[in-house]
Hints:
It is found in: Cytoplasm, Cytosol; Nucleus. Keywords: Cytokinin signaling pathway, Two-component regulatory system. The chain has seven helices and no strands. The protein is mostly helical. It has a domain at about 40-165: HPT domain (Four Helix Bundle (Hemerythrin (Met), subunit A)). The protein is elongated and about 55 Å long.
Amino acid sequence: MEVGQMQRQWVDYTKSLFLEGFLDGQFLQLQQLQDESNPDFVVEVVYLFFEDSEKLLNDLTRALHSMLFWLATFECFMKVCCFWGFRFLCIFFPPSYRDQPSVDFKKVDAHVHQFKGSSSSIGASRVRNACIAFRNFCEEQNIEGCLGCLQQVKQEYYLVKNKLETLFRLEQQIVAAGGSIPMTELSF
């Protein structure tokens, strides 16, 4: 593929990331900080975001894991009781909501707040928006909402990660072919 064609592909792909809401103006501002003296600035910042995000997602999963295990155990117990018709056992031996592990919502919220900030700083708007919803559920101490938002945040994060990695590969191909990244063509 010729350089001009790759550059047009890069512009179209980048515009699609904005039009689909994956990125916002903060990403453009990040790109404007990059120059000849630091040509890998955006890639380095975004890969730091990836590293931090993986850690935060692991922390969030761990903070909510005991609740996930409890909910799965309770659901399985109820299915077994209903399947075998042992409703009387469910009355005498149900997993009690009193035995439900507690979630440190302040800790979860602190992780989500950090994730929201880092996603905002690189312009990952869909991740940021999912974090906003997540924080609302933390404030309400709504475990089901938190668990759902955890999945949504993970999904949005892995989507934007994949999209940005594709963008960076395309940039590498353009540079390897002797071209430059056509930043001036990114007007919206």
